[in-house]
Each structure stands twice: as structure tokens, then as C-alpha cells.
Amino acid sequence: MRGIARLAKELGISTGTVSRALNDRRDVSPATRELVLATAKRLGYAPNQAARTLALGTTRSIGFMMDLDREAAASSEYFFMGVFDGVQTVFAEHNLDLLVLPRPTKLNAVSYLQRYVSRGVFDGMILAATQRTDPRIEFLESAGLPFATLGRSGSGKNYPWIDLDFEGVAEAAIDRLVAAGHRRIAVTVPADNINFGPIFAAAYERALARHGIGFDPQLVFARGRNEAVGYRLVDELALVPNPPTAVLLIFETVAIGMYRRMAELGQIPGRDLAIIGFRDEPTVRFLTPSLTCFATSLHEVGEDLARALLARLPGQGAEPHDEAVRKLAPLAIRPGESG
């Protein structure tokens, strides 16, 4: 004898009463509910999730979709582990499970997402790596599945998002470099269609304008995020007419390759070329000279993301027509010797 039937026999009550108590139905007295839950815990009872889903119309599971692109995954591992920790901390308080959906690069993003939505696997979804025009957002809106995004997009309407304050980073970095006497400041942006690229580039241009520095498109480098990119970038910067004396990196791992190439040339970061990276990650934390970059609490980013989605789940918070949570996570500069 297993499951509810065993609990019912142990307690001498009907299986229907046991089921209603386990599902926190109002037609069961508090005393009976406490007795059922205590007995279930003592007997090590675990509900049949498939049956529970059919009965309640909910899975208690949230999907987190991310891409399996090798280069992106390698440079984002630490970032996502911190975010996951924050997300699951909040979800655990609400008895929700976080399930990560790693999409292979060869599979269409919407088709991949549609497979799970059509099966009713999740009560809600979190999307990462938002694009400027993101068909996943439009699909989830049409499907009526509650969702939140890690990053902004030009797609969609009233949906919640949490994003890093790329504008604040660009402004603080340019202010620091200009104060140090730099007027020729290069910047790297993503080579793909991820939405924070244009956001960062526009913020960089505005920050230069505030200091009366004209925008030079030759100083904007759309590049990848690995060390080899940084190694080549040192030579590319030197070939620019009136070469830059400083560079702001959207991907801090690029700095590793830059340091290597500069060492080969007998150059020193901070003396021969000022370098500021985006995030303070373990991969760059022990570079010498120390890399100037920015830090944020990834755990708090994850918590904010989870709460933003919770507010959209039925029975948890806001109605669909209410204003969605939208928040920029601040980053604080960590001064180093590189710039």
C-alpha cells in the first residue's frame, strides 16, 4: 500500500480528506490538516507530481531558459550560478522548483520553448539573453504563460524584467577615464544581437558627449567574449588612426588576452593603455596589475527576478493588467590599477 491510501489507513480517515488536507483545501479543519501533514512527514510521503498537477492545474515548477553557446556559457557560468542561487532562494520559500532549460544552439529558440509550453510543464518562465527583437517574448505573451526576463527587449508589452545598469557602468567608467586625462576612449560591444549591446553603446556615446568628446565609430569594436579576442584587440587598437589611450570592455574576460599580448609587447595595463572591465568575476580578479571593474550582488539580482515573476503568477500577486516590475540592478566600481 502506497501514497494517500497508506496515509488514510494510518489515520482512519478517507483518502479524499487526506488529499484535501495535503492540498490545503479550506474544507478541511486545521487540526485534521496538521495531523495529516505530520503523519505524511513521519511516513516519508511524497506526492505523485503528475497526479497533483492534474488535480491542481499547477506544476509548482518554473523554467529558466538559457543558451548553450560555448563561448557565452564559458564566460557566464559564474554569473548564472549567482543568479540561480537568488532565484531558487525565493522560490523555495513558495514551494516552487527552478528547472534550467539549456537550449542547444542549433535548435530554434521559439520551437524549443513551445515544446515545454504545449506540454504544460511549467507555471512560469524566465528568459535570459534577451534580443533587441525577441520572438520568445511575443510567443509567451500569446500563450498566456507568466514570464519575466533577465534583460530588456524591444519586444513585448507589460512584462516584468530585471537588468543590469549598463548605463550607469558606462557613465562611471567614462567619468573615471576622462578625469585621468583620457580623450580617446574605445569600447567593445557584443558581436551578436543581444540587447544590452546597443544599450551599452548608446550609454557610452552619451557619456562622451557629456564631457564634450565627439563620438568616433572607429573606436567601437563589436567583438566576442573570449581571451583570443582580447589578444587580437591590442593590435587592432594600435592600428586605429590617433589610437585610443583607454578601452572599456563589455566582456571582462577579454582583458585576460589583452594582458597577455601587452606583456609580450613590453607594455603595462594602466600605464600604456587604460583598461576597465565590466564585471568583477573570479576569472579576472587576480590579474596584475589589478583590473578596474564593477561589482553587483548576483544573488540579489536573482531574488529580484524571482519576485518579479511571482507577482505575475495566479494567486501570488498582481493581476496581468497591473504594472509589471522593472528594475535596474546597480553596479559599484571596484577601482584597480588598470585604469
Secondary-structure topology with pairs:
Elements: H1 3-11, H2 15-22, H3 30-43, H4 49-56, E1 61-67, H5 70-93, E2 97-103, H6 109-119, E3 124-128, H7 135-143, E4 147-150, E5 161-164, H8 166-179, E6 185-190, H9 196-210, E7 220-223, H10 227-239, E8 246-248, H11 254-264, E9 274-279, E10 292-295, H12 298-310, E11 326-329, E12 332-334
Helix pairs in contact: 1-2, 2-3, 5-12, 6-7, 8-9, 10-11
Mind describing the biggest β-sheet? 6 strands, parallel
The percentage of residues in β strands lies in 15-25%
CATH superfamily of the largest domain: Response regulator
Q: Quick check: average pLDDT?
A: 89
How many domains make up the 3D coordinates? 3
- Give the low-confidence spans: none
- Helix-strand pattern, N to C? HHHHEHEHEHEEHEHEHEHEEHEE
CATH architecture call of the largest domain: 3-Layer(aba) Sandwich
- The percent range for helix content is 40-55%
Number of helices: 12
